[in-house]
Structure formats: structure tokens, C-alpha cells
Design goal:
By secondary structure, this protein is α/β, with parallel strands linked by helices. It has 2 domains: about 1-220, Spore Coat Polysaccharide Biosynthesis Protein SpsA, Chain A (Alpha-Beta Complex); about 230-425, Four Helix Bundle (Hemerythrin (Met), subunit A) (Up-down Bundle). The chain is about 55% helix and about 15% strand. It has helices at about 35-45, 60-65, 85-90, 110-115, 170-180, 185-195, 210-225, 235-250, 255-275, 280-290, 295-300, 305-330, 335-365, 365-370, 380-395, 395-425; strands spanning about 1-5, 25-30, 30, 50-55, 70-75, 100-105, 105-110, 120-125, 140, 145-150, 160-165, 195-200, 205. The two termini are about 45 Å apart.
């Protein structure tokens, strides 16, 4: 299947942002709008992209498409003022079977596109959670077909998402309109063709028309990038509220690996400071925990997630935990019996991670997904780090190590029990 992408508009509401490049090449959360749509579609099996643009943006788009190795045909619309309907008309000779039509200035989350590809006709959204409905193109539906469409409709059933799955016969309607008038819009084609509709409700998508839309979309993409499964109480209620703000500011300027290394260095600093000032070390350790979420948020929001990134980040976390806890232990100048408790706390902290990662290696599944009870167990890294900060601030390190020694091993054996019980069923 091919995808036709309309990118001939001049984007005048964007001001200087579209003087030298089309809206589709504006970066939101570290990636071009077009890259997001095309990469997801390519992953879902789209074989070729037909991009219709105007001569002003030809070179910029060509450079982008070749850089990212997208199989494409670049068509020029020398008369963008004739409307996006005319841009679609220019693509008629390049599609001979069912095809996707999408706008270059729309941002879609992956789940939206996956659901949309199951449908036919105009993909509509009855909820429109993330858009300004006053400015949206509304759709009136009757017997599962579009009967009217436009921005000024007072009574409507859904909003147009800018995503369509058409049969080639749509071009017969376009031919008829082209004989009647020189300039025409896509909404005129839809109104006359009355295509079927497919509902894809509640997913994130946005039409990017203004600089304010860019800011809103960036914030929402970062929010959607939060990995909720497997996180502890502290991450859900404290860390993520801070890390997402940091990610929102940095996502267009840094790579995920930069934040991974920076977070690690903050953790190492916490371990060094622990040798002479546990309260300050505790604060740096908590900062490391907050920053530890930023690299993942940026990676997911910017579509730069990699297996190595997650692997490397997990290893560095173990080093930081060891450095900080060992630094606090040395500061205490403990006796032999206390070193036994400290050893249990250190070993337990490593075993919490090992027990979940080993499950993934053995069963090829995420334990938090296959065993929902895991989310109720205390002792995740974010919770241990927060406890470490609190007890370091009040100088109760012996109590801290005792608690860590207990909750970590209780968690490990509870994990073993849950896995065993699931195995038996």
C-alpha cells in the first residue's frame, strides 16, 4: 500500500518557521512531524510515499527524505493556492489501488495510526480529547457515511483527523470537480464523495497550525512518553511531575544518551559526597532518580528509543546504587554486625533488579505486564532512593540499612512466589 502526503501549503500562520521549510519538517519533541508519521507508517508496512509539495520546499524535502531512506516520489504543485484538493489531484497517476491520504502537518501517536489502518474511508474522532474543537473540521455522519463536512458546522457527530484510506475511484470525483473549478479543497471532495467513516476515538493526534500548537503537542508527547508500568509510588507521584517538565525543555536540544550519562555523573557525585555529608548526598541521589526518567522520556517522545539505551541505563543505575550506599556505609564507620546488615541491603538492592530482569530473560515477557500483582510490591528503585534521601537528611543511616535489608529481600521472595504461582496455573 502507498501513502499520499499533502505538503504543499505555505503555513502562513507559523510565521518565520515556514519561510525556508514546510510545516512537516518542523521538529516537535525532537522529531520532524513528517518523520513521525512516515516512520510509523513504514513500520506498519507502507511501501512508498507520494509527497506533494510546492517548488519552494523541494530541496528541503528531498534532503529529508533521502537522509531517512524513505522510498518516495516527490511531486511538485506549482499552484499551492489552488487548494489541497488540487494537490491530491496531482497524485492520481501514482496510485492504482487502495491508498492512505494524510496531511503533513498532523501529529499522530502510534496507537492512533495502528487503529486507523484497520479502517476505511474518513478516519474520524468523536472525542477529540487533545484538540480545539472550535477550529477543527467537523463531520456530520449518516448511515456510516459522511454527509457534510466543514469547520463551521454547528451540528456534527465527529471531527476530521486528517487521515483517510481511499480507493482509487475517489479520483473520479476529483476529476468531476476539477472540470467545474480550478481551485478546490479536500473538504469539497469529501462532501461530494460521501465516503464511509471509521471511528478512532480518544487517541492523541493534533493539527499543527500555530507556534502555540507546537508547544502543546510537545508537552503532550512528553506526557504520553511516560512509562507507567513497573514504576513505584515515588515515580508516579513525585519524580514524573518534575522529570516531564525537564524533558519538555530539553527534548529538542539533547540526545537520550546525554541525559543517561549526566544522570550517572550526578549519581557518582552523590556517592562521593556521601563520604562526608549524607544529607547532601541524599539530595543528589534523589536528583539522580528524577533525572533517570528524563532519558527514557526523551527517547520515547523523540522516537529514539533503543535496546542498548535501556540496557546501558540499567547498568549505570546499579553502579550508582552501589556507590551511594557504600559511601553512606563508610561514613557510618560501622561494626562487624552492622556490615552484615549493610551487605544484605546492598545485595538486596541488586537482587530486586536482577529478579525482574532474569524473568524477562527466561520468559521473554515483562513481569509487570504478565504479573499485575508486582505493582503493589514496595522496594522499587525510586522508592529505595527516596527512603535513602529521607533517612540521610535525618541522619538515621542504621535504620535506613535495616529497612533496605528487609524490604528488598521481601520483594525478591514475593516475586519468586508470584512467578511460581503463575507457573502452576
Amino acid at each position: 500500500m502507498k501513502a499520499v502526503i499533502l505538503a504543499a501549503g505555505l503555513g502562513t500562520r507559523m510565521g518565520t518557521l515556514t519561510e525556508e521549510k514546510p510545516k512537516g519538517l518542523i521538529k516537535i519533541a525532537g522529531r520532524e512531524i513528517l518523520y513521525r508519521t512516515m516512520k510509523i507508517l513504514e513500520t506498519e508496512g507502507i511501501e512508498e510515499f507520494i509527497i506533494v509539495t510546492n517548488p519552494k520546499y523541494k530541496e528541503k524535502l528531498k534532503e529529508f527524505l533521502e537522509k531517512n531512506n524513505f522510498k518516495h516520489t516527490l511531486l511538485l504543485n506549482p499552484y499551492p493556492e489552488r487548494g489541497n484538493g488540487y494537490s491530491l489531484y496531482l497524485a492520481r497517476k501514482y496510485v492504482s489501488e487502495r491508498f492512505i491520504l494524510v496531511m503533513s502537518d498532523h501529529v499522530y501517536e502510534e496507537e492512533f495510526i495502528k487503529e486507523a489502518l484497520k479502517g476505511r474511508g474518513a478516519i474520524v474522532d468523536k472525542e477529540g480529547k487533545f484538540i480545539n474543537k472550535e477550529e477543527a473540521t467537523k463531520v456530520r455522519i449518516n448511515e456510516n457515511r459522511v454527509v457534510d463536512i466543514g469547520k463551521k458546522l454547528k451540528k456534527y457527530d465527529a471531527v476530521d483527523t486528517g487521515f483517510f484510506i481511499f480507493e482509487p475511484r475517489i479520483f473520479k470525483t476529483i476529476e468531476e470537480i476539477s472540470k467545474e473549478k480550478e481551485s478546490f479543497e479536500l473538504v469539497e471532495i469529501i462532501k461530494r464523495a460521501k465516503p464511509k467513516v471509521t471511528e478512532v476515538n480518544g487517541f492523541f493526534w493534533m493539527d499543527i497550525d500555530t507556534p502555540q500548537d507546537i508547544k502543546k503537542a510537545r508537552k503532550l508527547l512528553i506526557t504520553k512518553a511516560v512509562k507507567n508500568r513497573g514504576e513505584g509510588i515515588i515515580s508516579r507521584h513525585i519524580n514524573r511531575k518534575i522529570s516531564t517538565k525537564i524533558s519538555e525543555v530539553l527534548v529538542d536540544y539533547v540526545e537520550p544518551m546525554h541525559m543517561t550519562v549526566f544522570s550517572f555523573l550526578v549519581g557518582v557525585l552523590a556517592g562521593i559526597v556521601a563520604l562526608f555529608s549524607p544529607p547532601i548526598a541524599g539530595i543528589f541521589y534523589q536528583l539522580n532518580s528524577i533525572l533517570d526518567g528524563v532519558d527514557g522520556e526523551i527517547a520515547r517522545a523523540a522516537m529514539k528509543k533503543s535496546r542498548f539505551g535501556g540496557y546501558f541505563d540499567s547498568i549505570l543505575d546499579r553502579y550508582v546504587d552501589f556507590f551511594v550506599l557504600l559511601g553512606l556505609a563508610i561514613y557510618m564507620k560501622p561494626g562487624i554486625w552492622m556490615w552484615g546488615i549493610i551487605s544484605l541491603a546492598l545485595f538486596g538492592s541488586f537482587m530486586v533488579s536482577y529478579s525482574t530482569e532474569r524473568y524477562k530473560g527466561e520468559y521473554f515477557a515483562d513481569i509487570y505486564k504478565s504479573t499485575p500483582q508486582m505493582k503493589y510490591l514496595l522496594g522499587k528503585r525510586d522508592e529505595r532512593v527516596f527512603l535513602t534521601m529521607i533517612f540521610s537528611l535525618v541522619n538515621q543511616l542504621r535504620v535506613l540499612f535495616m529497612i533496605l535489608a528487609v524490604i528488598t529481600h521481601v520483594r525478591v521472595f514475593a516475586t519468586i512466589y508470584f512467578v511460581w504461582r503463575r507457573q502452576k496455573t
